[in-house]
Amino acid sequence: MELRPLNESNTNDKYKTYELFIGPNHPGISGNFSYVLDMEGHKIANVTADPGLLHRGFEKLMERRLWTQNLALIPRICVPEPDVNEVAYCMGVEHLAGIEVPKRAQYIRVIVLEMARIAAYLFSFSGVGGATGLYTAPNWAIGDRDYILDLFEWLTGGRVYHIYQYPGGVKMDIPDGWLDKLSELLDYLESRLPEYDNLIFKNPILQKRTKGVGYLSAEDAIENGITGPNLRASGVKWDIRKAQPYLVYDELDFDIPETGDGDAFSRFVQRRLEMEESIKILRQCIKQIPDGPYREKIPNPFQFRVPAGTYYSKVESSKGEFGYFIVSNGDIKPYRVYVRGPSYSAGLYYALEAMKNMRIEDVPVWIHSMDICPPDFDR
Amino acid sequence: MIFLKLLEGIGVGLLSLTVGLLFMGLARKITARIQRRYGPPVLQNFIDVFKLFSKQSISHGFAFDLGLVAGVSALLAAVVFLPMGQINLFPHNSSLIMIIYLMTMAYLGMAMGVSSSGNPNATIGVARALTMMMGYELPFAAVIFSVYIFAKTGSLTNIVAAQGGGFLNWNMVRLPFGFLAAEIALQGMLGEKPFDMAIAPAEIASGPMVELGGKYLGFGMLQHAVGIYLETGIMVDLFLGGASNIWIFVTKQFELFFIALLINAVLPRFKIEDGVKFMWKVPLLLGVIQALIVVL
Amino acid sequence: MLESVEKKVEELKRMNLEAKALGDWQFEVLVPRERTAEILAYMKATGYKTFIHLACVDWIDDQEFELVYNLENYDEKAQALVKVRIPRNKPEMESMMSIWGLCQVYEREIHEFFGINFIGNPNLKPFFLDEWLDIPPLRKDFDTLAFSQELFEFKEDESHGIKAPKRIEYK
Amino acid sequence: MSEWKDLTNFFRGRSFWMLHYCTGCGAMELPPTMTSRWDMERFGVIPMATPRQADILLVTGYLSLKSLKRLIYTYEQMHAPKWVLGFGSCTINGGVYWDSYNVIERLDKYLPVDLYIAGCMPRPEAILDSFKKLRELVEKGEAKGYEKYVKNYEWYKANQDRVLKRTKPVLQKPEEVTRSA
Question: Does A34 share its domain with A141?
Fold first, then answer.
């Protein structure tokens, strides 16, 4: 990128705008990613996305590793919510290899996914706070998120990356007393929700700043491939957990909350309401989880071959549809895996349209309201 | 005689720096407790300033150096004229107008300095700071007007003297609307939320401070420290009846600062135009009502 | 299998296309290159409105690239994988930007990672990588390990006590 | 004079300002470290928005070539004294990305690293411990990475240019591939 000389006079048409970098080193951006804004006065005239700062070539690396080795690699694709990667990948492999997953393992997977979802939503609360300058929100939300990570650590041994799923089930059974601790934690989180409401969602200044920012209509959302809570906040009732139930979601009773205004505030509120539903799902799982084996044993993992075929497996993550397009040619390694990150279309394509004529104050609010997570499109 | 006065002046300057930095440290501690944290040591800001002055620094030209030095020195000059308890160096010269004039000088100096760094973020930050200044100066002017009319004097020493003789004589009680308006304006003056658009890190990467490093950031911190001392000090003199000695003075200052902190901890920041609109709506209205009450 | 998927597969078969269901809610359809724009527009008109992703598979043994357009239908709860094969020695494809504007970024990415040229796409500048001079990295004949060793030279370093990790190749 | 130096080092060690630049996935453990659970502000460490204000460059995890370029700009903008902390196993030897075409392996070939934190990813306690360790090094006057960088600038520059300013393909082309821009 060429920097423009600062001493050029303003008379030239070419220098009517000036460049402003949001990222990569900027507190307003989520992760290592950059938007270059061409500013005209205080309005944004043009936006360029500059991804690739987190590109590690996962898709190439996965072709070089065994089917089971990849499980250690893929959680790193989405850092705030790594479990969706493992589950989506395992579901794809199981479908291709024809492995039946025991009921208990499916319940454990749902528990892990929903806990990860709550953790990711709490993280996005902190994003709201950080973007608008309400620094008490990150401090509270991330502190509470840590209790979830503690439970994860007890269950899987890892705080952030769990590497817990395995083709055919999960690696370890739930330890004794863990479920009781989980339900205690859910009580605690529920008692915290009114405080978050008072601090964040009922805050008049925050409402003033986020209402009407970044309006996204239902048609635009569908056209631009925007999924997950952002789509639902625009009024489209689409949740993979309901529409194409995977694991045991069809046995659980939950609602899809509706906000439907399509602006940044309703996207925040959507996440807040869905958190309540996740707590509800977890309560049911604690009650309903059956006894039985936690994993279908697969033969020697070093010789584990997946029959040739293609499959697209997807999971509803906190950011939208997280998909794994898996191609196997019957070898011990995947032939090709394509990872569909939910932020791709919003962060790299729709942002350029949405941010035009926006003010610089609204940019961080927009980024955090769409919950753009750079690692999942950089891969 | 002049030499003694000079020494006294330096003493007052050091006092204001010390108290200001202490307030900043306490602010970090109190904010941390609201955020369920332990917080840094209270003297952390002294360590930070010392460290900043021991760092290598890059200058961006003469205007950059001059602006930052002017910022601190104008505020220090203003502090000298502030009556604080028994310390009152110029009892016959403590004109409020002059103090406010020197304060504005300080902010303009800072603005000149950081704009010459050439960073667009700094320029946006300065533009926001000056817009915000326009926002809070207007209600504050209305308040000062009513205090002037009420006390029939422009000297802070005399205003303090007029409030003597108990709590009920304080302007806070006598001019309640004016006090409220001034409190809100103080929030803007201190640059606390919801009026801290000038330094919004998530939007413009800490605004005016974006190119400041080392000694220059140290000057910025010192300016903020003296600014806190001066602004809360003016409020104490105007509304809380001054003080009989320096300890009571600092305690009263801290009370005002504490309220500002609590508001700061639970509110996000306004957009710049919303902030100015708010300033011109609520506090200005309160100020005008107060002025009308006083005049009639 | 969903009824809507079954119906759609039948319908596509009647259009002389190879289609088959892959799971409960998804199916694939193989489309010749000339008919891609027509079929994609048809799919969009019949409810497959959301463009999920465009992926590319390098079938080096067949000397072909396979482009996979993944479409989603929210009303019928179905997913379609539209596959197009293009020759590897002449990697060219028409841009589908006129149907979904979103294709622009996906095509730019695939141009960078596979070297496929999309005719009609105005912006195919480097996207994720800076100054890439080798063959596109996601092609099967690109050896990432050799590249990494050559460029970053992970040599054993006695003075720092660093040893290169032991590498096991599974066959 | 040495007393003065000791005094400055004492204060420097108690007021680390960290650059808020999330270079890799290790940045995920920074919010817990900053906020109420671990609260690194206790030790005088606070995140700063721009490199001019910062003392510490915390390289959180792997570095792609594109990030490395920005990181070097950032490092050179910081005012001395400045320190680099390599965070996670990816900065030490590439970690799980040892065979990736876009991730550098040893960070200390390109920037002078004062301290490495091992693990993938290191826990917040490890981060806090590293600040303590760095404080000890600074107080003893041993953390001199920025001076090393100036002294050996040619060597660092040559290494940086080798990976960032490539003029010809790294690998021999197996066959001629035509690729229009």
Answer: no
